């Protein structure tokens, strides 16, 4: 005969997970509204122009551009095409490295 604590653990394991109980790193109130439109995409990858398939950071700016930091530069996506920014040793205002791991406002 199983102990009552074993039965309780089995029931807890079968119970659905409440998403409100899952810790979040960002409060829902802290997220900015995106727009009053429907944004849909199934997959964005190198086939669509992303410079590298490993994305370290994603950011959406105030104009709606999505910025992807990869191991091969900073990618700006306008919903249709990518513009890729990479270091230019001849430009003092250029990125310092191809490997982008964070963005700042």
Give descriptors for this structure.
105 residues; alpha+beta; four-stranded antiparallel sheet; 1 helix; 10% helix; globular
Quick overview:
The protein is α+β, with helices and mostly antiparallel strands. The chain has one helix at 4-14; strands at residues 55-60, 66-70, 73-77, 82-85.
Largest sheet: 4 strands, antiparallel
**Average pLDDT figure:** 75
Strand order of the largest sheet: 1-2-3-4
Q: How large is the share of residues in beta strands?
A: 15-25%
- Element-level helix/strand string: HEEEE
Overview of the structural elements:
With 105 residues, the protein is α+β, with helices and mostly antiparallel strands. It has a domain at 52-105. The protein has one helix at 4-14, and strands at residues 55-60, 66-70, 73-77, 82-85. The chain has a four-stranded antiparallel β-sheet with strand order 1-2-3-4, with no helix packed on it. The model is unreliable at 4-24 (pLDDT under 50).
